[in-house]
Design a protein that fits this description.
By secondary structure, the chain is α+β, with helices and mostly antiparallel strands. It contains four helices and ten strands.
Length: about 220
Protein backbone atom coordinates (compact mmCIF):
# COMPACT_ATOMS: atom_id res chain seq x y z
CA UNK A 1 0.00 0.00 0.00
CA UNK A 2 1.46 3.42 -0.96
CA UNK A 3 2.18 6.09 1.65
CA UNK A 4 -0.85 8.28 2.22
CA UNK A 5 -1.14 11.93 3.22
CA UNK A 6 -4.05 13.08 5.37
CA UNK A 7 -5.73 16.32 4.26
CA UNK A 8 -8.17 18.19 6.51
CA UNK A 9 -10.97 20.12 4.80
CA UNK A 10 -12.53 22.87 6.92
CA UNK A 11 -16.01 24.08 6.04
CA UNK A 12 -18.99 25.93 7.44
CA UNK A 13 -22.44 24.41 7.79
CA UNK A 14 -25.14 27.06 7.94
CA UNK A 15 -28.74 27.77 6.98
CA UNK A 16 -30.76 24.85 5.66
CA UNK A 17 -27.57 22.77 5.45
CA UNK A 18 -27.69 22.51 9.25
CA UNK A 19 -30.47 19.94 8.76
CA UNK A 20 -28.24 17.59 6.76
CA UNK A 21 -27.64 14.48 8.86
CA UNK A 22 -24.18 12.96 9.24
CA UNK A 23 -25.10 10.11 6.89
CA UNK A 24 -26.33 12.52 4.23
CA UNK A 25 -23.32 14.78 4.83
CA UNK A 26 -21.06 11.84 4.04
CA UNK A 27 -22.93 11.36 0.76
CA UNK A 28 -22.74 15.07 -0.05
CA UNK A 29 -18.99 15.14 0.54
CA UNK A 30 -18.49 11.98 -1.51
CA UNK A 31 -20.26 13.60 -4.47
CA UNK A 32 -18.46 16.94 -4.05
CA UNK A 33 -15.04 15.27 -3.91
CA UNK A 34 -15.82 13.20 -7.00
CA UNK A 35 -16.97 16.29 -8.92
CA UNK A 36 -13.84 18.19 -7.88
CA UNK A 37 -11.58 15.64 -9.56
CA UNK A 38 -9.16 15.75 -6.64
CA UNK A 39 -6.84 12.74 -6.17
CA UNK A 40 -8.49 11.38 -3.02
CA UNK A 41 -7.79 7.86 -1.84
CA UNK A 42 -10.47 5.18 -1.94
CA UNK A 43 -10.79 2.36 0.55
CA UNK A 44 -9.99 -1.12 -0.68
CA UNK A 45 -12.37 -4.06 -0.87
CA UNK A 46 -15.61 -5.05 -2.55
CA UNK A 47 -17.22 -1.58 -2.31
CA UNK A 48 -14.48 1.09 -2.57
CA UNK A 49 -15.42 4.56 -1.34
CA UNK A 50 -13.61 7.75 -0.44
CA UNK A 51 -12.02 7.53 3.02
CA UNK A 52 -13.51 10.27 5.23
CA UNK A 53 -13.48 11.05 8.95
CA UNK A 54 -15.63 13.87 10.38
CA UNK A 55 -14.73 15.53 13.70
CA UNK A 56 -17.49 15.89 16.34
CA UNK A 57 -20.68 15.71 14.24
CA UNK A 58 -23.42 18.11 15.32
CA UNK A 59 -27.10 17.43 16.05
CA UNK A 60 -29.57 18.33 13.32
CA UNK A 61 -30.46 22.01 13.16
CA UNK A 62 -27.25 23.36 14.66
CA UNK A 63 -24.91 25.51 12.57
CA UNK A 64 -21.13 25.53 12.63
CA UNK A 65 -18.18 27.62 11.48
CA UNK A 66 -15.67 24.88 12.28
CA UNK A 67 -16.67 21.64 10.57
CA UNK A 68 -13.88 19.42 9.29
CA UNK A 69 -13.45 16.19 7.38
CA UNK A 70 -10.22 14.27 6.90
CA UNK A 71 -9.50 12.56 3.59
CA UNK A 72 -6.39 10.82 2.29
CA UNK A 73 -4.39 11.17 -0.88
CA UNK A 74 -1.40 9.41 -2.39
CA UNK A 75 -0.01 12.83 -3.34
CA UNK A 76 3.04 13.43 -1.15
CA UNK A 77 2.85 17.24 -1.06
CA UNK A 78 -0.65 18.32 -2.14
CA UNK A 79 -1.27 21.93 -3.24
CA UNK A 80 -3.75 22.79 -0.48
CA UNK A 81 -4.97 26.06 -2.01
CA UNK A 82 -5.59 24.27 -5.30
CA UNK A 83 -7.63 21.71 -3.34
CA UNK A 84 -9.75 24.49 -1.83
CA UNK A 85 -10.34 26.12 -5.19
CA UNK A 86 -11.28 22.81 -6.83
CA UNK A 87 -13.65 21.77 -4.06
CA UNK A 88 -15.39 25.11 -3.37
CA UNK A 89 -17.62 25.19 -6.51
CA UNK A 90 -18.63 21.56 -5.99
CA UNK A 91 -20.18 22.23 -2.57
CA UNK A 92 -23.96 22.77 -2.16
CA UNK A 93 -25.55 25.86 -0.64
CA UNK A 94 -24.85 26.18 3.08
CA UNK A 95 -21.60 24.19 2.98
CA UNK A 96 -18.64 26.45 2.24
CA UNK A 97 -15.01 25.35 2.17
CA UNK A 98 -12.97 27.91 4.09
CA UNK A 99 -9.55 26.27 4.03
CA UNK A 100 -7.69 23.04 3.41
CA UNK A 101 -4.72 22.12 5.60
CA UNK A 102 -2.55 19.31 6.81
CA UNK A 103 -3.81 18.30 10.27
CA UNK A 104 -1.84 19.47 13.27
CA UNK A 105 -3.82 17.40 15.77
CA UNK A 106 -5.74 14.14 15.80
CA UNK A 107 -9.52 14.41 16.10
CA UNK A 108 -9.30 12.39 19.31
CA UNK A 109 -7.54 15.36 20.89
CA UNK A 110 -10.69 17.49 20.83
CA UNK A 111 -11.79 18.15 24.41
CA UNK A 112 -14.17 21.14 24.23
CA UNK A 113 -16.44 22.98 21.84
CA UNK A 114 -17.47 26.62 21.93
CA UNK A 115 -21.01 27.70 21.00
CA UNK A 116 -22.94 30.92 20.47
CA UNK A 117 -26.61 30.56 21.38
CA UNK A 118 -29.46 32.94 20.56
CA UNK A 119 -32.96 32.83 22.01
CA UNK A 120 -35.85 35.28 21.63
CA UNK A 121 -35.36 38.29 23.90
CA UNK A 122 -38.41 37.33 25.96
CA UNK A 123 -36.41 34.32 27.17
CA UNK A 124 -34.27 36.61 29.34
CA UNK A 125 -36.45 35.98 32.39
CA UNK A 126 -36.03 32.22 32.05
CA UNK A 127 -32.27 32.61 31.75
CA UNK A 128 -32.23 34.68 34.95
CA UNK A 129 -34.23 31.96 36.70
CA UNK A 130 -31.76 29.32 35.52
CA UNK A 131 -28.89 31.42 36.88
CA UNK A 132 -30.60 31.61 40.27
CA UNK A 133 -31.02 27.83 40.58
CA UNK A 134 -28.76 25.78 42.83
CA UNK A 135 -29.18 22.66 40.72
CA UNK A 136 -30.38 21.76 37.22
CA UNK A 137 -30.33 18.03 36.51
CA UNK A 138 -31.35 16.46 33.19
CA UNK A 139 -31.22 12.95 31.79
CA UNK A 140 -28.75 12.56 28.93
CA UNK A 141 -29.55 9.80 26.45
CA UNK A 142 -26.78 7.61 25.08
CA UNK A 143 -26.36 4.22 23.45
CA UNK A 144 -26.00 2.77 26.94
CA UNK A 145 -29.23 4.31 28.19
CA UNK A 146 -29.79 7.46 30.24
CA UNK A 147 -27.69 9.09 32.89
CA UNK A 148 -28.25 12.23 35.00
CA UNK A 149 -26.16 15.31 34.19
CA UNK A 150 -25.88 18.29 36.50
CA UNK A 151 -25.95 21.22 34.09
CA UNK A 152 -24.69 23.61 36.75
CA UNK A 153 -21.41 21.68 36.91
CA UNK A 154 -20.64 22.79 33.36
CA UNK A 155 -22.46 26.14 33.10
CA UNK A 156 -23.25 27.60 36.52
CA UNK A 157 -24.67 30.70 34.87
CA UNK A 158 -25.68 31.62 31.33
CA UNK A 159 -24.22 35.11 31.02
CA UNK A 160 -26.53 36.53 28.39
CA UNK A 161 -26.98 39.91 26.79
CA UNK A 162 -30.15 41.15 25.14
CA UNK A 163 -29.24 42.25 21.61
CA UNK A 164 -32.25 43.56 19.74
CA UNK A 165 -34.73 40.71 19.44
CA UNK A 166 -32.34 38.13 20.88
CA UNK A 167 -30.95 37.03 24.22
CA UNK A 168 -27.45 35.80 23.35
CA UNK A 169 -24.85 33.88 25.33
CA UNK A 170 -21.81 31.69 24.76
CA UNK A 171 -20.97 28.23 26.12
CA UNK A 172 -17.80 26.15 26.21
CA UNK A 173 -18.69 22.52 26.85
CA UNK A 174 -16.91 19.14 26.97
CA UNK A 175 -16.72 17.57 23.52
CA UNK A 176 -14.29 14.72 24.06
CA UNK A 177 -14.72 11.04 23.36
CA UNK A 178 -15.43 10.40 27.05
CA UNK A 179 -17.98 13.19 27.57
CA UNK A 180 -19.78 15.17 24.90
CA UNK A 181 -22.33 17.77 26.02
CA UNK A 182 -24.37 20.03 23.77
CA UNK A 183 -26.40 23.23 24.29
CA UNK A 184 -29.48 21.18 23.38
CA UNK A 185 -29.43 19.82 26.95
CA UNK A 186 -29.77 23.35 28.35
CA UNK A 187 -32.40 24.32 25.79
CA UNK A 188 -34.45 21.24 26.66
CA UNK A 189 -34.20 22.10 30.37
CA UNK A 190 -35.23 25.72 29.77
CA UNK A 191 -38.23 24.54 27.77
CA UNK A 192 -39.36 21.95 30.29
CA UNK A 193 -38.81 24.08 33.39
CA UNK A 194 -39.61 27.59 32.17
CA UNK A 195 -41.56 27.17 28.94
CA UNK A 196 -38.88 28.56 26.60
CA UNK A 197 -39.61 27.68 22.97
CA UNK A 198 -36.40 25.83 22.10
CA UNK A 199 -37.46 25.54 18.45
CA UNK A 200 -36.73 29.26 18.11
CA UNK A 201 -33.17 28.90 19.38
CA UNK A 202 -30.15 29.26 17.12
CA UNK A 203 -27.01 27.31 18.04
CA UNK A 204 -23.75 28.08 16.22
CA UNK A 205 -20.55 26.18 16.96
CA UNK A 206 -17.67 28.63 16.76
CA UNK A 207 -14.67 26.65 17.97
CA UNK A 208 -13.17 23.23 18.68
CA UNK A 209 -10.58 23.17 21.46
CA UNK A 210 -7.90 20.88 22.84
CA UNK A 211 -7.47 19.99 26.50
CA UNK A 212 -5.24 23.07 27.00
CA UNK A 213 -7.97 25.25 25.42
CA UNK A 214 -5.91 25.86 22.28
CA UNK A 215 -7.70 25.66 18.93
CA UNK A 216 -7.96 22.25 17.31
CA UNK A 217 -6.35 22.46 13.87
Amino acid sequence: MPALTTVRIWFTKTGEASYISLLDLQRVMQRALKRSGLPVWYTLGFNPHIYMTFACPLPLGQESLVESVDVKTETEAPDLEAWRQALAPAMPLGLEVVRVALPAHKAGGIAFARYAVRLPAQSAGALEQYNALESAVVLKKSKRGQKPVELKAYAKTLDFAVEGENAAFEMTLPAGEGLNLNPALWLGFLQERFGVDSTRANVLRTGLLLEDMQDFS
